[in-house]
Design brief:
Keywords: Membrane, Transmembrane, Transmembrane helix. The chain crosses the membrane at residues 319-342. Helices cover 22% and strands 41% of the residues. The protein is α+β, with helices and mostly antiparallel strands. The chain has 2 domains: 25-216, no CATH class; 231-309, Immunoglobulin-like (Sandwich). The strands form 3 sheets. Strands 12, 13, 14, 15, 16, 17, 18 and 19 form an 8-stranded mixed β-sheet that branches. Strands 3-4-2-1-7-10-9 form a 7-stranded mixed β-sheet. It has a 4-stranded antiparallel β-sheet with strand order 5-6-11-8. The protein starts with a helix and ends with a helix. 23% of the residues are buried.
């Protein structure tokens, strides 16, 4: 009995130990996250994420090594949030990771811990820093010379409408801010302080979906959006119901292409193509031929073709020969019957 009791006690202690290990392996915590953007004169933007982990009751976990190891598993996902601020297709962006979960005690993070609209300040932060080349962003538009419009998307709202950026700080390092706005316009505006803009958003309604800046960026040279896919025009024909264009992805990646019909006015269709996939967009209003058709991905023209009118050859239905034979048979039968009755009538009269 003593041995059995000792064994049971050992099993009980081991079960508690394993349970404790399991609890520590999956810590329950929240992360306060603030973003800082710095627009640089060389045409890049530095995106700093400031992260501070804390318990559900607001206790800091900045120095908890288990939490740090757990956060380290999510670095790639966190970097994607920075990239999504400047493109709806991050794989097209040129970027460089500068800092990867570096602990800094001189930073602060604001977060609404209790969900009551009151921000709590946490000293210290983990930093994830990414440099992005703006000339690879499809959210940048040249206005005049070195004056550009740069749109910054709330990457959290874009993936989940119930989430938003709590804090966004915007700095201008060697760049000149000429104007700014936010979308939608009824969202919360920024505080202007010491040459920077700071948005503090307490809820979904306050948080903008887009932050838009007009900036003079001396070193930015827009090179256009690179193509997402490699594709070609398989055929282009004008039929009775409009212009039919068959396009095919002949590359190794999936993405969007634009089919443009050079009519008056021009018309275009946006098509998503998987690898090796064919699609056939139709332009019902295009009835005249010939018409030029262009295929684009990003800012690059991939292919061009001239659509001509296809002569539609009438092919009789498969049952048509049988119908002709049947009608011929019926006609012959009617002739035979008519001859038969005429002969009968003639014989009847001759017998009289």
């Amino acid at each position: 009995m003593r041995k059995l009791g000792a064994i049971l006690a050992t099993v009980f202690i081991l079960s508690l130990t394993l349970q404790a290990i399991n609890i520590r392996a999956q810590p329950r915590y929240w992360i306060g996250l603030n973003f800082r953007l710095t627009f640089n004169p060389d045409g890049t933007v530095t995106v700093d994420q400031k992260l501070h982990p804390f318990t559900v009751d607001g206790k800091s976990l900045l120095n908890d090594p288990d939490v740090a190891r757990d956060m380290n598993q999510s670095i790639a996902q966190m970097i994607s949030y920075s990239l999504l601020m400047f493109s709806d297709n991050p794989k097209l962006l040129k970027y460089q990771v500068l800092k990867s979960l570096e602990k800094r005690y001189g930073e602060t993070v604001l977060c609404d811990v209790t969900g009551t609209g009151k921000m709590q300040e946490f000293p210290g932060a983990y930093i994830i820093s990414v440099k992005i080349w703006l000339n690879t962003s499809n959210y940048v538009r040249q206005l005049n010379g070195s004056l550009f419009e740069v749109k910054v998307r709330d990457s959290f709202t874009s993936t989940d409408p119930r989430s938003w950026l709590d804090v966004l700080e915007v700095y201008f390092n060697g760049t000149v801010l000429k104007g700014y706005r936010w979308e939608p316009p009824y969202a919360h505006g920024p505080q202007e302080t010491q040459g920077r803009l700071v948005w503090v958003n307490h809820n979904e309604q306050e948080a903008p979906d887009f932050y838009v800046f007009q900036l003079v960026i001396p070193g930015l040279v827009k090179v256009g959006e690179p193509p997402e896919v490699k594709a070609k025009i398989v055929s282009a024909e004008v039929l009775g119901d409009g212009l039919h264009v068959v396009v095919q992805n002949v590359g190794t990646t999936s993405g969007y292409v634009y089919v443009r019909a050079l009519t008056t006015p021009d018309q275009a269709r946006k098509v998503y193509l998987y690898v090796n996939e064919k699609q056939e967009p139709v332009f019902p209003d295009v009835r005249n031929a010939p018409v030029e058709v262009e295929l684009y991905s990003g800012d690059s023209m991939l292919d061009r073709a001239t659509a001509t009118r296809r002569q539609e050859v009438f092919i009789p239905p498969a049952w048509r020969p049988y119908l002709i034979i049947t009608m011929a048979f019926i006609a012959a039968l009617l002739v035979f019957i008519a001859i038969f009755f005429l002969r009968e009538e003639k014989e009847r009269k001759s017998s009289l």
